[in-house]
Amino acid sequence: MAISQRMARAILLAPAGLWYAVLLVLPLIVVLVYSFGERGAAGGYAPAFTLAQYANLGARWTALQNTLLLAPAGTLAALLIAYPLAYFLALRVTARWRTTLLVLVIVPFWTSILIRSYAWIFLLGGRGIPQLLSDLGLGDLRLINTPFAVLVGIVYGYLPLMVFPIYVSLEKLDRRLLEAAGDLGAPPWRSFVQITLPLSLPGVATGSMLVFILLMGEYLIPQMLGGGKVFFVGNALVDLFLQSRNWAFGSALAVTLVAIMLVTVTLYMRFLKRIGAARDDVGLM
Asked: Where is the ABC transmembrane type-1 domain (predicted)?
């Protein structure tokens, strides 16, 4: 009986395992091997075993720095905007309007990110918001092709991915806990800090990691709203693989990015364990 269960489990997991191995593990192995090679005479890859590509990562420090600064900043900004919105949708809106408002949150995803980025180019360009501020006598500001423009674009583009995990956590909240806290004399802010926030942290963690991981590999928004002046690692990889044709150096940069993400995911899993323990403590109170 035990053998048949193992066989059934293996058969069920085989398609997903094969898909995972071919489309994720194998490409990562190829990139890792390339990262220890050298650039060929005509570009591309030349077999070798050297750490020179990793030693040269400082040449792309600007891209790494922008990514490591703006990706967390964009994630935090999206969280600060998404949490009040998700809280309002889950706990303050009646069921009659909830579906309509949720649809409005996801409506931007119905339009290509390319078109939405072009819209922000107009809004942040010389004839958009800066022109309006100048007409109001508030000075001549430059918004487009700046880190601020990139930050606005990534927050706008990824906000729904932050809203929905938080909304799901808040929507599942047992409101009897809030009623009991009110009956015991707890003010609303204390109920939020001691009940609502701890129980919604799994959604916060999921949304934050989802947005952060995608932002670490972002290419289009920095390219369009940064105007070639605010590079992310994704932009550097496109340059190295398609223009400079330095596949070895590009692979080393990609492996470094993957290593950063692995560390992040590890910390994320530990954070989830602590959240689970804290949630259990709240449930036992």
From this structure: 64-268
Burial, 124: exposed, middle or buried (Cβ in 10 Å; 0-12, 13-18, 19+)?
Answer: buried
In sign, the C-alpha dihedral spanning 118, 119, 122, 124 is: negative
Q: Which domains does the chain have, with CATH numbers?
A: 61-284 (1.10.3720.10)
Q: What CA–CA distance (Å, rounded) separates 207 from 76?
A: 11
Radius of gyration of the chain, Cα coordinates, nearest whole angstrom:
24
pLDDT at position 3 is 62
Count of all residues that appear for the chain in the document? 285
The 10s digit of each residue's pLDDT in 15-32 is: 888 998 898 899 999 999
Would you place residue 129 in the very low, low, confident or very high pLDDT band (cuts 50, 70, 90)? confident
Q: Do residues 241 and 250 lie in contact, with contact meaning Cβ atoms separated by under 8 Å?
A: yes
Question: Can you tell me the distance from the alpha carbon of 114 to that of 219, in angstroms, rounded to the nearest whole number?
Answer: 11
Report the C-alpha gap between 275 and 285 in whole angstroms: 15
Measure the CA–CA gap between 242 and 134, rounded to whole angstroms. 40
Which own/partner pairs from 171-179 qualify as long-range (CB within 8 Å, at least 24 positions apart)? Answer: 171/90, 173/90, 173/91, 173/199, 173/200, 175/91
